[in-house]
């Protein structure tokens, strides 16, 4: 298994190089001038030219890219054009918010999608099966920006059940430690903050988790239906085993590999694709920060953020691959 992990990690290198090349070219070929953004519209031509020279923007693209690669090899993602802070620091400050939102969105998706898929497979062609799959189809088809706006309008504006934005209420005594607010509130035994943080998480997490929930439900149903047709399942029923034991101990366990695959892939997508949700709910995560960086032509932030997401996605997929052996001992890694 160690050799397999090393091979997968080494395979990460060409992937990140390819991502770095593509992102670098796209970012530098889109219209806009970072120097103009920093100095404003009233800046003189001399001031703009001086700043471009200081930032190396006047150098040819191959020279700029080679300088960027050398910095990456040293673990230096550069400095933000707008704040002049190290990109790694900016990403580290905002990633916990994205991680926390993605985790609870996936928790919602799994807790709803897996049971729905299981019961839909048991009650195949019943009203529950048809209704759950219709809801799943609607969930997959629904645009996240529209769903988020409808959630805010209905549950925040009209009913007032949940706050429309931000991670925590104003005025609460709370000092972040890890920037994972749920964990920080538990560490500090600040149950008022814990309740408030969860209250703020509900709308964005449910909105973000709706599409993964629908995909997981459909995959669970499909995988369970395939397993329930196997001979060993019919044998288990013929031996008189209880239905719950056959479904949850024998069928579900053997149907878990494709379900784990979908859960892992969707979690990686959530980590890198929460941009729309964070923007709608004003969630101070990495996705919203990248959108602001794109508008500000902050090249180092955009490049570093996308590279970071690419690395996280590959690592999540590696963890998913390794987890297969936990549910199916027949799988061996060499």
Automatic annotation (TrEMBL):
Alphabetical GO CC annotations of the entry are: plasma membrane
Q: Which residues cross the membrane?
A: 9-30, 101-122, 134-156, 201-220, 255-281, 301-327
This protein's record includes keyword Transmembrane helix: yes
Output the InterPro entries linked to this UniProt entry: BPD_transp_1_N, MetI-like, MetI-like_sf
| Presence of the UniProt keyword Transmembrane helix in the record | yes
Superkingdom of the source?
A: Bacteria
**What are the entry keywords?**
Cell membrane, Membrane, Transmembrane, Transmembrane helix, Transport
Its recorded name reads Peptide/nickel transport system permease protein
């Amino acid at each position: 298994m160690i050799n397999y992990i090393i091979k997968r990690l080494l395979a990460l290198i060409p992937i990140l190089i390819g991502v770095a090349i593509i992102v670098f070219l796209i970012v530098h070929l889109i219209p806009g001038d970072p120097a103009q953004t920093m100095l404003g519209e009233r800046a003189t031509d001399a001031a703009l030219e001086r700043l471009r020279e200081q930032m190396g923007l006047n150098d040819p693209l191959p020279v700029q890219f080679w300088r960027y690669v050398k910095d990456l090899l040293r673990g230096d993602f550069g400095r933000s054009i707008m704040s002049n802070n190290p990109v790694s620091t900016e990403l580290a400050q905002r990633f916990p918010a994205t991680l926390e939102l993605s985790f609870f969105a996936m928790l919602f998706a799994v807790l709803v999608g897996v049971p729905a898929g299981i019961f839909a497979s048991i009650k195949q062609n019943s009203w529950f099966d048809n209704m759950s799959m219709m809801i799943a189809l609607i969930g997959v088809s629904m645009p996240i920006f529209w769903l988020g706006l409808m959630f805010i309008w209905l549950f925040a504006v009209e009913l007032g059940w949940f706050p429309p934005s931000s991670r925590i209420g104003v005025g609460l005594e709370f000092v972040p430690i890890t920037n994972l607010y749920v964990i920080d509130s538990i560490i500090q035994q600040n149950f008022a903050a814990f309740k408030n943080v969860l209250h703020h998480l509900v709308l964005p997490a449910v909105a973000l988790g709706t599409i993964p929930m629908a995909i997981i439900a459909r995959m669970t149903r499909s995988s369970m239906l395939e397993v329930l047709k196997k001979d060993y399942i019919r044998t288990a029923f013929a031996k008189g085993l209880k239905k719950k034991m056959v479904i949850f101990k024998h069928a579900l366990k053997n149907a878990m590999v494709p379900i784990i695959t979908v859960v892992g892939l969707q979690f990686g997508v959530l980590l890198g694709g929460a941009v729309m949700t964070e923007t709608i709910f004003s969630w101070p995560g990495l996705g919203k920060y990248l959108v602001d960086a794109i508008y500000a032509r902050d090249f180092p932030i955009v490049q570093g953020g996308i590279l970071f997401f690419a690395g996280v996605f590959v690592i999540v997929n590696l963890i998913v691959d390794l987890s297969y052996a936990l549910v199916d001992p027949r799988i061996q890694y060499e």
